[in-house]
Design a protein that fits this description.
The complex is a heterodimer. Chain A is of the alpha+beta class. Chain A is about 40% helix and about 15% strand. Among the domains of chain A are: about 200 residues, Aldehyde ferredoxin oxidoreductase, N-terminal domain (Aldehyde Ferredoxin Oxidoreductase,  A, domain 1, 4-Layer Sandwich), CATH 3.60.9; about 190 residues, Aldehyde Ferredoxin Oxidoreductase Protein, subunit A, domain 2 (Orthogonal Bundle), CATH 1.10.569.10. The longest helix of chain A is centred in the last third of the chain and has 18 residues. Chain A is globular. The two termini of chain B are about 20 Å apart. Chain B is of the alpha+beta class. A two-stranded antiparallel sheet of chain B has the order 1-9. A two-stranded antiparallel ribbon of chain B has the order 3-4. Chain B has 3 helices and 9 strands, in the order E-H-E-E-E-H-E-E-H-E-E-E. Classes of the chains: A alpha+beta, B alpha+beta. The interface between A and B is large, with 44 and 32 residues. Strand 13 of chain A pairs antiparallel with strand 2 of chain B.
């Protein structure tokens, strides 16, 4: 629904109270990232811990959600159990369109349910249900039961957590509709802390379109750009797994806990290899004709007689890097098995992969023993890693309990911080160089998508730290506006400022279109202010020694430039936030 | 006359582009429900998708069920709906054997008019707008040309 304000549903799980409020701010924070930050400022307790029952868990969509292709993401905001600071995590699936058609711009969940519960939201329904019998179930079981319990198949989203979230691990994700996630920084733990197993949003309303023909004309142009040009072909073809071979060729693929950046054995886990032997089909987030979700299969012989079962598992570059190259597992079916275990447990796949890579090296160096790891972790040993991922999710012993708090927490206890591949959180799958390392380490989401540091690294050398900081700040600003719309960032090539302006005007948001530059700057500042007010200090973020030891296609990492850039970007962030 | 068919739904990725296009272009709405074709997952995403759309019956049970004449038989199968005559009783939806008619919160019915405008929005060519006969269509006066919704 086009409106000049936000319609926000707040549910208090402690009291059961539900409130629908019209909140101003459309022309200042737009939606998505901006709206989530504004709502966190309104409802959050900046000085209290992340698991304080009153802390909000926020889901926000944007002014263009559902109106244009790939405006298909939802921003989730919360105080993170990973660092106890403000955090954002983005997810797709059907979450965005479901919230749009439930007719809310944002859902704010506060309080803590008395027993494990599910929240059901629709345009004509807001309800809490006791689901204590689902506590402890893995995501596959929970998904099946929840689908049976609630109506709306196809036009609803089911957001749920697994055992890792229930145990409040900072590595726990919120899974959306089986194959997508609010993956990073522990959103799943926040749901767990609220006794909230699942959120079902039923998109059951519809709205009149804006008057005139502009909207349909602009839509057709954007749709043609998405589907008739080669701008999105990467995602339609191999998908992000196409990056595996590209990064390996560049000597920029993190391998075996970043002890190497290229290895011919990665031929077994490239996007091409997956497509050849393991790709079963594709899927899409609702509202996205590109369909970048790649679903592979594994089959498992479970009896000596020829009895098999099979599973369907989605894969992406980040997942393949984390439980593939980073763990020295170079067979695509073994990678899928590891993804499957993490998915069932409700873990963000990236963090366990990087954490277990550290544990493997720590075990080899004698910092820890098999008494801690319980299984013989060794690069390439997939079956050990399958067991270890479960231990990590369930917190089987003290070691796994600490490791599931974050790799650096474990390194503080057991030593080995120099080779912990942590950049604010467990690293993403790009060892492209100094700019990316600084961008992820200091970035607001600690995500490779905060700013294009990895692409800046691939530009010709000879740039100064000042040039790189200007790029990062400028690039983040553009991305923040996109994530306030809320666009999938894969569409950033299509959604230029001009196109975004046309889209906004065509549905009646002329003021947003006219003030994009100012609004994006304001949202960028608002997010950083919140992060800083919740404790962020760039000088407290370290980039472990391992990152300076690697060699890429450009040669050795330039430590001087790395340090200069980190300091300069940190200062820039602090000054940006005032 | 051409009708909409869904011969390659195994390819469907669940993007809902067809439903959104129908709602946008035919019904002037933003919706994935208020459309002549709707996509549902058949028991979770791992089992794929199915399309709920008109099978172009001839004779159409919804025409026979309609008490006001708002529904009439379309030549070549399917129906023409005159929404001015519709009293929102919902009998059409009850009569439809394939659950192809969506009733919104006010009871307004939405059913495929076999115009084919959703077809180009499918990225995997799941849909087809084609000459397809399920049997001889009656050539009665009530048979009307397709291509628009009369409201």
């Amino acid at each position: 629904m086009i409106r000049d304000h936000f319609k926000v549903l707040t549910v208090d799980l402690s009291t059961g109270q539900r409130t629908i409020a019209d909140i101003d701010g459309r022309d200042t924070v737009a939606g998505g990232s901006g709206l989530a930050a504004m709502l966190f400022e309104k409802y959050g307790f900046l000085g209290k811990p992340w698991n304080e029952p009153g802390q909000p868990l926020i889901f926000a969509i944007g002014p263009l959600t559902g109106y244009f292709p790939l405006m298909s993401k939802t921003v989730c905001a919360f105080k993170s159990p990973y660092h106890d600071q403000y955090a954002e995590s983005h997810g797709g699936g059907r979450s965005a369109l479901s919230l749009r058609f439930a007719d809310f711009d944002a859902l704010v969940i506060i309080g803590k349910a008395a027993s494990p519960s599910a929240l059901i939201v629709g345009s004509r329904q807001i309800e809490m249900k006791d689901v204590h019998y689902l506590w402890g179930t893995d995501l596959q079981v929970a998904g099946k039961v929840l689908r049976r319990m609630f109506p709306g198949g196809g036009h609803r989203t089911i957001l749920r957590i697994g055992p890792a979230g229930e145990r409040q691990s900072p590595m726990a994700c919120i899974t959306a509709d089986t194959y997508r996630h609010f993956g990073r920084l522990g959103g799943g733990a926040v749901m767990g802390s609220k006794n909230l197993k699942a959120i079902m949003i039923h998109g059951d309303a519809s709205f009149p379109l804006p008057a005139g023909n502009d909207y349909v004309k602009v839509f057709d142009k954007v749709h043609a750009d998405m589907t008739d040009t080669d701008m999105m072909s990467k995602y339609h073809n191999l998908g992000t797994p196409g990056n595996v071979a590209v990064m390996n060729d560049l000597k920029a693929l993190p391998i075996r806990n970043l002890q190497a950046t290229a290895d011919p054995a990665t031929a077994g886990i490239t996007g091409e290899r997956f497509a050849e032997v393991a790709l079963l089909r594709n899927a899409a987030c609702a509202g996205c004709p590109v369909g970048c979700i790649h679903i592979g299969f594994v089959r498992e012989r479970f009896q000596k007689e020829n009895r098999y079962l099979y599973r369907q598992i989605s894969y992406d570059h980040e997942l393949i890097f984390a439980v593939g190259s980073m763990l020295g597992v170079m067979d695509c079916f073994e990678v899928l098995k590891l993804i499957d275990v993490a998915e069932k447990m409700g873990l963000d796949v990236m963090s366990p992969g990087v954490a277990l890579a550290w544990a493997t090296e720590a075990l080899a160096k004698g910092f820890i023993t098999e008494k801690e790891t319980l299984v013989p972790l060794a690069f390439g040993n997939s079956s050990s890693y399958q067991a270890a991922i479960e231990h990590l999710a369930l917190g089987t012993n003290e070691f796994y309990q600490i490791l599931s708090q974050g790799t650096m927490k474990a390194a503080e206890q057991y030593r080995g911080g120099d080779f912990a591949c942590v950049l604010g959180q467990e690293m993403a799958g790009y060892a492209t160089g100094e700019t990316f390392f600084v961008s992820q380490a200091l970035g607001l989401r600690h995500s490779h998508l905060d700013a294009g540091g990895y692409s800046y690294d691939q530009k010709p050398k000879g740039k100064t730290a000042e040039d790189a900081v200007k790029f990062l700040v400028r690039d983040e600003k553009g991305r923040v506006f996109l994530t306030s719309m809320v666009s999938c960032l894969f569409a950033r090539g299509v959604y230029t400022d001009e196109t975004l302006g046309n889209c906004l005007k065509s549905v009646g948001y002329a003021k947003l279109a006219d003030d994009m530059e100012k609004i994006s700057g304001d949202i960028q500042r608002l997010r950083w202010k919140l992060r800083i007010r919740t404790g962020y200090r760039p000088e407290n973020v370290s980039i472990p020694k391992r990152f300076a030891e690697i060699t890429t296609w450009k040669g050795q990492i330039d430590k001087t430039f790395l340090n200069e850039l980190k300091e300069a970007y940190g200062k820039s962030i602090m000054s940006m936030a005032g | 006359m051409k009708i909409l068919t869904t011969p390659r739904m195994e390819r469907c990725i669940g993007c809902h582009s067809c439903s959104l296009a129908c709602a946008r272009l035919i019904h002037k709405r933003l919706s994935w429900d208020a459309a002549g074709i709707r996509i549902r997952s058949s028991g979770g995403l791992s089992t794929g998708f199915e399309a709920r759309t008109c099978f172009a019956c001839d004779p159409a049970p919804c025409v026979m069920a309609c008490p006001t004449g708002a529904y009439s038989q379309r030549k070549g199968g399917g129906v023409v709906v005159r929404k001015k005559l519709c009293i929102r009783c919902g009998d059409c939806a009850k009569a439809c054997p394939v659950d192809a008619i969506y009733l919104d919160a006010s009871g307004e019915p939405f059913v495929c008019i076999h115009c084919g405008r959703c077809v180009p929005f499918c990225p995997h060519d799941c849909l087809e707008h084609t000459e397809f006969s399920r049997g001889a269509a009656p050539e009665g006066e009530e048979a009307a040309a397709a291509g628009e919704v009369e409201s």
